[in-house]
Automatic annotation (TrEMBL):
Active site positions: 232 (proton acceptor)
Keyword match S-adenosyl-L-methionine: yes
Annotated protein name in UniProt: Ribosomal RNA large subunit methyltransferase E
Tree of life domain: Bacteria
GO CC terms: cytoplasm
Binding site for S-adenosyl-L-methionine: 118, 120, 147, 163, 192
Name of the encoding gene: rlmE
Keyword Phosphoprotein annotated: no
Role of this protein: Specifically methylates the uridine in position 2552 of 23S rRNA at the 2'-O position of the ribose in the fully assembled 50S ribosomal subunit.
Reactions it catalyzes: uridine(2552) in 23S rRNA + S-adenosyl-L-methionine = 2'-O-methyluridine(2552) in 23S rRNA + S-adenosyl-L-homocysteine + H(+)
Domain Ribosomal RNA methyltransferase FtsJ positions: 86-274
Originating species: Ralstonia solanacearum (strain UW551)
Main location: cytoplasm
InterPro entries: RNA_methyltr_RlmE (IPR050082), RNA_MeTrfase_FtsJ_dom (IPR002877), rRNA-MeTfrase_E (IPR015507), SAM-dependent_MTases_sf (IPR029063)
Region described as Disordered: spans on this chain: 257-279
Length: 279
């Protein structure tokens, strides 16, 4: 027996008592006192505890999903979109902003960045098709849409699937824009693009700012001096930097929070008009 400096009997009784306590607690004594070269290592968490934590996380996730699904099914804009044939409730966000700011007009050339699933393109198409100058089922104007994701065709909308940061895709987009404008500039750039959020505020803010920069760069190169850019962004870290960037490029900058954007969402939209330094 290793010398401990304690009374052996007292040590044994204490050890027995602790062992009994561990047994009653459901902990195996041998596992709880593992030693390697005389060093003590605490026991690993019991598998049952790990499963309980995983189960709790899974239950919380399921509860969130069920809550979201309940809100989605009962959302009046979801029901309205289904009745009116829009692919997503997002169409009503654009509709409200358009009605307030008179963005979409007959004869315009409009670019829809991050277009999938296509509800913004649908709304723009319906608006241009309602023009008195639209004939034979055609629209009075032109719409160019792009997204990295696939999108079901929308009548009268030229769609490109790809990442417009890639040179080949960007050249394809430019070619369609030049053809639609007769070598000129576009009237309106819409961007519903958003990054995949990680939950890390600083990383998400950087991604959102980068996407906003891409939209502004595109507008700077292809927008008419009196044209407009509308983007989606989020309140929180990085929002003020996006606003300042807009103010450097546009004479008129206005935030928009349409009713169709859920109250508890940090989602907002930023509208820039009249380029200060057209490309």
């Amino acid at each position: 027996m290793r010398t401990t400096g304690f009374n052996a009997c007292a040590c044994e009784r204490s050890s027995d008592r602790r062992a009994g306590e561990r047994v009653r607690a459901g902990i195996n004594e041998a596992d709880s006192r593992k030693r390697t070269n005389g060093a003590y290592y605490p026991p690993k968490p019991a598998a049952s505890a790990m499963f309980r934590r995983r189960g709790a996380n899974s239950m919380a996730k399921n509860k969130f999903n069920q809550s979201w699904l309940h809100d989605h099914i009962n959302d009046p804009y979801v029901k309205l979109a289904q009745r009116e044939g829009y692919r997503a409730r997002a169409a009503y966000k654009l509709k409200e902003i358009d009605e307030q700011d008179k963005l979409i007009k007959p004869g315009q050339v409009i670019v829809d960045l991050g277009a999938a699933p296509g509800s913004w393109s649908q709304y723009v198409r319906n608006k241009l098709a309602a023009s008195p100058r639209a004939k034979d089922g055609r629209i009075d104007g032109a719409i160019v849409a792009i997204d990295i994701l696939p999108m079901e065709p929308v009548a009268d909308v030229a769609f490109i699937q790809g990442d417009f940061r890639e040179e080949a895709v960007f050249q394809q987009l430019e070619a369609i824009v030049l053809d639609a404008t007769g070598g000129g500039k576009v009237d309106l750039v819409l961007s519903d693009m958003a990054p995949n959020l990680s939950g890390v505020a600083s990383a998400d803010a950087a991604r959102m700012e980068h996407i906003a920069e891409l939209a502004v760069e595109f507008a700077q190169a292809h927008l008419k001096p009196e044209g407009a850019l509308l983007i989606k962004c989020f309140h929180g870290s990085g929002y003020s930097q996006i606003v300042e960037m807009f103010k450097r490029h546009f004479r008129v900058v206005a935030p928009r929070k349409p009713k169709a954007s859920r109250d508890k969402s940090s989602e907002t939209f930023l509208l820039g008009r009249q380029l200060k330094h057209p490309g």
